[in-house]
Design brief:
The chain is mostly helical and 60 residues long. It has a single domain (2-47), classed as Orthogonal Bundle (434 Repressor (Amino-terminal Domain)), CATH 1.10.260.40. Helices cover 55% and strands 0% of the residues. It has helices at residues 2-8, 12-20, 28-38, 42-47. It is globular, with a radius of gyration of 12 Å. The chain starts with a helix and ends in a 13-residue tail after the last helix. 7% of the residues are buried.
Length: 60
């Protein structure tokens, strides 16, 4: 977790809050940075969202 946070340019506490849902709507660029560090495309991140997160709409 520490390496991911540092490589993404965010604090470990911020990453922990995102993972536990204490930051309900993290900034787009924060998610993009974490995805980049994890080797995920934004399409892969969007595809992993549940319908409740996307408001019932499928990611395109």
């Amino acid at each position: 977790m520490v390496t991911v946070a540092l490589d993404a340019g965010i604090s470990v506490e911020t990453l922990r809050k995102i993972e536990t849902g204490r930051i309900a709507t993290p900034a787009f660029f924060t998610i993009a940075a974490v995805a980049r560090v994890l080797g995920l495309s934004l399409d892969e991140v969007a595809d992993s969202l549940t319908p409740s997160v996307t408001g019932g709409m499928a990611a395109s």
